[in-house]
Write a structure and sequence with these properties.
Length: about 150
């Protein structure tokens, strides 16, 4: 039978007793501390030097932000500590009524004024690409002079 339980820092005692009345004892070695995040999970003792730790976080995008949904940036330290921050949704970037990131159409930018043409298909793609190139070149040109 365990007559003195071992702790993190103190040995315990196991006593063996025979039905005839003879007995002997053995030492149960101390268990040692089991630290998690600088605190022993058995006795609550603080790990030596644990208060001196300086966190060094690594950032990782765990959920990428989209045009309409926030993302998540997770910061993790080698010690296991971590925290998260919100990455704000980027918002749509419309050029000629179409988002250049996700392809969503700008609300209210539907009609071309041409009967029977809904703005879809190869012609629409061609015209959109051409307008994007012209817009980019004009922007670059104006940026140089202003």
């Amino acid at each position: 039978e365990v007559t003195v339980a071992a702790t993190c820092t103190e040995d315990g005692v196991m006593t063996y007793t025979c039905a005839c009345g003879d007995s002997y004892t053995e030492v149960i070695p101390a268990t040692g501390h089991h630290y998690v995040n600088g605190v022993c999970i058995v006795c609550g003792a603080e790990e030596p030097g644990a208060g001196e730790h300086s966190h060094s976080y690594t950032a990782e995008v765990t959920v990428a932000a989209t045009c309409t949904e926030d993302g998540v940036m997770t910061y993790t330290c080698a010690c296991g500590d971590s925290y998260t921050e919100v990455i704000p949704a980027t918002g749509h970037h419309y050029v000629n009524g179409v988002c250049t990131v996700c392809g969503a159409k700008k609300p209210g930018a539907g009609g071309s004024g041409w009967s029977g043409w809904d703005g879809s298909g190869a012609l629409s793609t061609f015209l959109t690409n051409m307008m994007n190139r012209v817009f980019t070149r004009l922007t670059n040109l104006f940026t140089k002079f202003w």
